[in-house]
Amino acid sequence: MVFANCNQRSCGFIRAIRHPEGQNIRVPMLPCCRIYRMVCLHENRKKLLAVIHHCITFPPLSCYEAVLILLSRNQAMQNKKSNFSEWYTEITKEAKLCDLRYNVKGFVIFMPWSVMSMKKMYSIYEAEMERTGHKPAWFPALIPESNFHKEAKHVEGFTPEVFWVERAGENKLEERLAMRPTSETAMYQMYSLWIQGKSDLPLKIYHPSQVWRYETKATRPFIRSREFYWIESHDAFATEAEARAQVQEDMEMAQNVIFGEFGVPFLFFERPQWDKFPGAVSTYAADCLMPDGRVLQLPSTHLLGQNFAKPFDVKFLNEKGESEYCWQTCYGPCISRIYAAIISQHGDDSGLVLPYSLAPIQAIVVPIPRKGNEEAVNQAARETVSLLSKSGIRAEGDFSQNTPGFKYNEWEMKGVPFRIEVGGREAESGIYTVVRRDIRAKASVKKEELASWLLHEGARMLSDMKKKAQNGFDSCISKADSMETLATELEAGHIVSAPFCTMEKEGEACADAVKEKCAANVRGTRYGKSERAHGKCIACGKEASAIVYIARQY
Ligand SMILES: [Zn+2]
């Protein structure tokens, strides 16, 4: 069954409903209850009912308008909980976050609405880097092949993923150049020139950039593509203890920014020996949980020891005048992927929900004129936008010809944190109706208090979003002591802790068994929480030496 609306969309009434057999059922000015009944027959009735229910709960949107909004979209949003994959695909399309039609496989166009948020994420993360003593630098995108070969494990790990540049114009290059998949081998030869004495240490450099990896898994915008946007920091120290402290500081930065500012909860795991960064002594990585119960790796920080310092000759002269190798760490928060976590964590069935500080528009002013008061209402709306802009709030007005209901829907889809409704009553009284996107709570706010109210409520919104996210995350951590319970818990979308024989290389066979039986991965042991192993390894039955966490992964 297809709804046909009248030619003037803004009139807000459905004129006919077309039956699949072809005949039109004319429904001039149907009362809500009749529309409701017809909707019940519709194949997408669940979605339509949800929208209509929403309209009735949150006037002044009428049922007619709601159905028109549905008509104006090709497809309504899928349910996030029951079908996360489709929900994710739709939200990236409907909110115009990216365009997948570029003609190089695995490469994605990030569009203005997502990039405006990611630029803010960059500046927040970079500020945190600088607060912890890092200085910015920009390194070349091309790395000579010979640099790669200096660290054997690194080259082995990354070679299958490298895009190579072999020609320049008509000339074949003497040496192949790699499009950087990560910058260790570009930076450390320079570190060897820059670091002489102890006074050059610690050296803490961060590098905001994009990197290229020939990933063979399917592309998911923001989650996995062959080009992605990140920050990498590379630090060098005189002692191992300082390097270990840096790894800890990297994890604290993640906590401050990704949970503190973006509201995405996660856990840091020390990865097993068979799953560490190529060339590292140990790897610590943050996993957050997507709505479909699979974990997504956020930043990882790596203790490199002297594994790179030796081949790249990164040395300093100590107080005795002796030459010593530096101790190094590297860290890589991937901005585009953290963005994927933010939209997945906070979004709902109406679209994005963006934290106040990341939203490209923080408050959208929607004028609701009636015949006769158009000028006064539009004027009041314009004044409100200018008032808020002067206070440093990113505010805009929607003066398009669409109906108010259509506009509400549009800006909800985009995740704008606050909607300010300006009708005749508001224009006259100077008391505005403000609706908060995440909980849809309505408030009446005096015009002169609007700016300070938004600032305060914006902070409260983030704090509420964090609480909700953390509670959801905590409820998804569970335990298992056998392969059977592990399978059940994973099926429920949980991160599951279980006794395991060993985190050393020998444990890999057991991890493979887990992967085969439960389609899940051993993520490692919890960092910063000493959990005493007890019982038998869930895979081989040997005495357990560690409590590991297991999850399905992206
Ligand atoms: Zn085992």
Give structural notes.
This protein is an alpha+beta fold. The chain has four domains: 2-76, no CATH class; 109-140 and 202-345, Bira Bifunctional Protein, Domain 2 (BirA Bifunctional Protein, domain 2), CATH 3.30.930; 363-465, 3-Layer(aba) Sandwich (Rossmann fold), CATH 3.40.50; 477-553, C-terminal domain of ProRS (Translation Initiation Factor IF3). The protein contains 17 helices and 26 strands. Strand 13 and strand 14 form a beta hairpin. The chain starts with a strand and ends with a strand. Residues 501, 510, 537, 539-540, 542 line the site of zinc ion (ZN). The site of zinc ion has 6 residues, from loops.
For this structure, what is the CATH class of the largest domain? Alpha Beta
Which outline best applies? globular
Number of separate strands: 26
CA-based gyration radius: 27 Å
| Count of helical regions | 17
| Strand fraction | 25-35%
Quaternary structure of the protein: single chain
Structure in a nutshell:
With 554 residues, the protein is of the alpha+beta class.
Strand-helix topology:
Blueprint: E1 2-5, E2 14-18, E3 24-26, H1 32-41, H2 45-57, H3 63-72, H4 84-94, E4 98-99, E5 109-110, H5 112-131, E6 135-136, E7 142-144, H6 145-148, H7 152-158, E8 164-168, E9 171-179, H8 184-194, E10 203-212, E11 227-237, H9 240-259, E12 267-270, E13 282-289, E14 294-305, H10 309-312, E15 315-317, E16 323-325, E17 327-331, H11 335-346, E18 363-368, H12 374-390, E19 395-397, H13 404-413, E20 418-423, H14 424-429, E21 431-436, E22 442-446, H15 450-474, E23 477-479, H16 483-491, E24 495-500, H17 508-518, E25 521-526, E26 546-553
Parallel strand pairs: 6-10, 14-26, 18-19, 18-20, 23-24
Antiparallel strand pairs: 1-2, 2-3, 4-5, 7-9, 8-9, 10-11, 11-17, 12-13, 12-25, 13-14, 14-17, 15-16, 20-21, 21-22, 24-26, 25-26
